[in-house]
């Protein structure tokens, strides 16, 4: 454990700046959601419902499953940890694409298992064929992240189904869809259409991104009851607070959700504006289907990130590969295009 680097959080923005380093939702909380959270304050001397039943019922209705086929957790990262701990132990392997979500390697290490990282394709998407080839009799979990954090590329529905056809039906596949609400490419996989079709598939989603509840920590998994039961066993009990549960329920109320999804549409417009602008400047940016854009800055990664920081824009640098820029405030798009227009990589 001493050798394990702790999870790295994006650095805070300067007072006048923009924090585009954590894929957060730039909009303020909805008043109705904030009120639902405030209402829980009168009973914080009591433990919350350990299983977040009301929220699971709501989600169950939405996805056409029973509440037992829904597991709510302390952010979807906690759910990832629960599934990995339930399935993998020392000597086992967990296969995932790389580069992908920074938390995967640490969670696998904590379980005692070994990470098998399959390099992304040249277009920065998952190489699902290579991932399927990497499965051995020691593999206990495969994680597929679509859209992939930090590159933004999705797996297509056809690619995913062809992949599932190659995966043994007793090998757990976690489809991490933290950013799915921002996807506009109709060919992309949508876990919702896969629910109930595979005995080994769990779909993970979160309220942190599109629903703007990152500070409260609430995510969910949908999948076969037996697999969810194993993950319930590895959970730290009572992880989802009353405030988080209430905020989740309030966010699914029709009026609130309509407003939240209108905000998502606005973020997607900003993403399109940034992506199109970067492409026309000559940036070799891959497809962007999350609330962020990937800049393949290579050896210049740190220098470009520092240049942006000096201009008050905090981004997430992954030297020596690239930079992930979250879609934030409206005006930040123009600021980014202004700075990045001067930094287009030469080797095109
Ligand atoms: N999966 C992916 C791909 C993510 O990028 C994140 C957050 N950065 C998470 C899961 C975890 O989100 P949360 O724990 O806030 O639900």
TrEMBL record:
The modification N6-(pyridoxal phosphate)lysine is found at residue 209. GO terms for biological process: L-histidine biosynthetic process. Residues 18-337 form the Aminotransferase class I/classII large domain. GO terms for molecular function: aromatic-amino-acid transaminase activity; histidinol-phosphate transaminase activity; pyridoxal phosphate binding. Pfam families: Aminotran_1_2 (PF00155). InterPro entries: Aminotrans_II_pyridoxalP_BS, Aminotransferase_I/II_large, ArAT, HisP_aminotrans, HistidinolP_aminotransfase, PyrdxlP-dep_Trfase, PyrdxlP-dep_Trfase_major, PyrdxlP-dep_Trfase_small. It catalyses: an aromatic L-alpha-amino acid + 2-oxoglutarate = an aromatic oxo-acid + L-glutamate. Its EC number is 2.6.1.57. Keywords: Aminotransferase, Pyridoxal phosphate, Transferase. It comes from the Bacteria. Residues 1-24 are annotated as: Disordered. Homodimer. Belongs to the class-II pyridoxal-phosphate-dependent aminotransferase family. NCBIfam families: PRK03321.1. Aminotransferase that catalyzes the conversion of aromatic amino acids and 2-oxoglutarate into corresponding aromatic oxo acids and L-glutamate. This is Aromatic amino acid aminotransferase.
């Amino acid at each position: 454990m001493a050798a394990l680097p702790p999870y790295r959080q994006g650095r805070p923005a300067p007072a006048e700046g923009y924090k585009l380093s954590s894929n957060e939702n730039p909009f303020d909380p909805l008043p109705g959601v904030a009120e639902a959270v405030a209402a829980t304050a009168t009973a914080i001397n009591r433990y919350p419902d350990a299983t977040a039943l009301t929220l699971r019922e709501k989600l169950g209705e939405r996805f056409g499953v029973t509440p037992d086929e829904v597991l709510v957790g302390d952010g979807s990262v906690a759910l990832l940890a629960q599934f990995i701990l339930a399935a993998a132990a020392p000597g086992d392997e967990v296969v995932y694409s790389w580069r992908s979500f920074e938390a995967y390697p640490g969670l696998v290490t904590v379980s005692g298992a070994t990470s098998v990282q399959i390099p992304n394709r040249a277009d920065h998407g998952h190489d699902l064929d290579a991932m399927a080839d990497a499965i051995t009799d020691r593999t206990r979990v495969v994680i597929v992240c679509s859209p992939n954090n930090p590159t933004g590329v999705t797996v297509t529905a056809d690619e995913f189904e062809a992949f599932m056809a190659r995966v043994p039906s007793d090998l757990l596949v976690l489809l991490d869809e933290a950013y799915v609400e921002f996807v506009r490419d109709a060919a992309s996989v949508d876990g919702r259409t896969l629910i109930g079709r595979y005995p080994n598939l769990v779909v993970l989603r979160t309220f942190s991104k599109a629903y703007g509840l990152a500070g409260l920590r609430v995510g969910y998994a949908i999948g076969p009851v037996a697999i969810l039961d194993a993950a319930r066993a590895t959970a730290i009990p009572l992880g989802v607070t009353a405030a988080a549960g209430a905020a989740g329920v309030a966010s699914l109320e029709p009026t609130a959700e309509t407003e939240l999804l209108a905000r998502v549409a606005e973020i997607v417009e900003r993403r399109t504006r940034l992506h199109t602008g970067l492409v026309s400047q000559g940036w070799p940016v891959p497809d962007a289907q999350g609330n962020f854009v990937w800049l393949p800055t290579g050896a210049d990664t740190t220098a470009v990130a520092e240049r942006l920081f000096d201009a008050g824009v905090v981004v997430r640098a992954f030297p020596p590969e690239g930079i992930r820029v979250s879609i934030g405030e409206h005006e930040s798009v123009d600021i980014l295009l202004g700075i990045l227009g001067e930094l287009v990589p030469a080797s095109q």
